[in-house]
Design a protein that fits this description.
Elements lengths: L14 H4 L5 H7 L4 E4 L4 E4 L8 E6 L2 E7 L3 E8 L19 E4 L4 E5 L1 H10 L1 H20 L5 E4 L5 H12 L4 E4 L7 H7 L9 E3 L5 E3 L3 H8 L10 E7 L3 H12 L4 E5 L25 H14 L3 E4 L3 E5 L5 E5 L4 E9 L3 E2 L8 H4 L4 E2 L4 H6 L4 E5 L3 H10 L5 E6 L9 H9 L3 E5 L1 E7 L6 E6 L4 E6 L2 E4 L4 E2 L38 E3 L11 H28 L10
Helix pairs in contact: 3-4, 8-9, 8-14, 12-13
Amino acid sequence: MIATPIDPTDPWLRQAQTFPVLSFEMIERAKAYGLEEKVTEDTIVFERGQRTIDFFLVLEGEIELFIDDVRRGRRLVFTYHPGQFSGEQNIFTKRPMLLTGLAKAGSRLLRITNRDFHSFITGEPDIGETIIRSYILRRAGFVRHSEGGVLLIGDRHHGDVLRIQRFLTRNLYPVAVVDPAIEPTALALMQKLAVTSDTLPVVVTPDRKVWSRPSNAALADLVGINEPPEADTIYDVAVVGAGPAGLAASVYGASEGLSTIVLETMAPGGQAGTSSKIENYLGFPTGISGQALAGRAHIQAQKFGARISVSHEVMKLDCSSYPYSLVLDDKTSLRARSIVIATGARYRKLDVLNYDKFEGQGIHYAATAMEAQICADDNIVVVGGGNSAGQAAVFLSRTVRHVHMLMRSGIASTMSDYLVQRIERSPRISLYQQAEIAALHGEKSLNGVTWIDHRTGERHELAATNIFVMIGASPNTGWLDGCLDLDQHGFVKTGMVATEHSPASPYATSKDGIFAVGDVRAGSVKRVASAVGEGSVVIAAIHQFLERERQSEHDDPVLSATAAR
């Protein structure tokens, strides 16, 4: 395979699930959805960069799978044999393919067109389950081994390197980081690519195109992970935010026949997507990482036809006319008949001098495998007393030298008991209650903190290279621009009474047809499960609202009540 696997969780070790062989009976059913083709000579059936690819099932012969790599060129990584099938999760979208497939002469294939593929996996749910599981594992393997994506050259602790790596990783796009200070071949590679040190960091695509310090939006367009809104389309539902609540709304909306678009600034998953492991989520007795949960929900939404647009921020909600309009940061806009606000809340920042200086390169708001690798064998600080902070401390304690956990209150009052027990028993976690950071130290990079013990008033110095800040919650509602009623803390007020055009709903806002779910909603329970529940349930209210709108337009097509709002 691509790399020598050493971890039992490595997808490449799960061959039966990552590259399954369909049974004879399954193959016979699949034939109803496609056409058989005989390959007379070696033929490329899909190629890196191609969009809307078809699905191929090998009946006889084989398809060779190739990866293009800046450093090693094109190389064979796997071969599909009879009963095995091509593709990975990009087949659900119009995003460009990462790999190239070569059907060998004499092979016999079943081709199911991209248009018919969706009918195939929904019409044959047991086969669809096998295919989707394999696609999730294939993409996880490519991301884990940094294969099939782009090369990122630069200091691995530099803020822009971390930003680019974090953005691509959270969007499940493979990225290999090459640090010139560590990699012996990096300078020779830079010479070949005509890259100078003053342009670092740079992103290099397999076709050797070089991009210096691209923004997240430019990066999304470069690698093709952005699916912009379709021009002149009025969506039934526009979901702003792709956290658990937003993804749930998109899954239920799209699966129930509503044209659905999701707008997300960073990556699917929201704040929950940065959790190293969620252990109290129903149905996952051994726990699941926030990124894995988000990845599954993402592909589930795409399976039903939801369009997910990543990297562009919604800057304004125009509620002066109907359908409503959302204005993005690139000045484009889209219209929708109903809107679900699921922008969630973000962690608050520490009120400490030089905080902005170390943000993004020493101060983090997520604790995933990427951050664990960055902090390996270092002393770190986790600030916060909630479950997110507890999960981060436990997760990071496996790879760092020591975790110093600071919180302003007592641990038992704000954290789940199972996390409290693990923290108190861990020899690699030191807990400081009623404590907070008073100062940050370092020139170009963080190297220490000063913290205060409020029980004694004493100040302590602590050597630490990274801080994980997971405190409080500030709602992401600045973009609403006065359209909706907010509470004193900026959260969206919901539970408005029914009107002529809008049904009663605990998620209804002060504007008909606009709903709020998840952490952004005033009074919501800040838990992943409740967010998912709200996102799924709100679609029923949207159906009722849209039906009333259609009836209103039918009764008075010249002047519907909503058009005059």
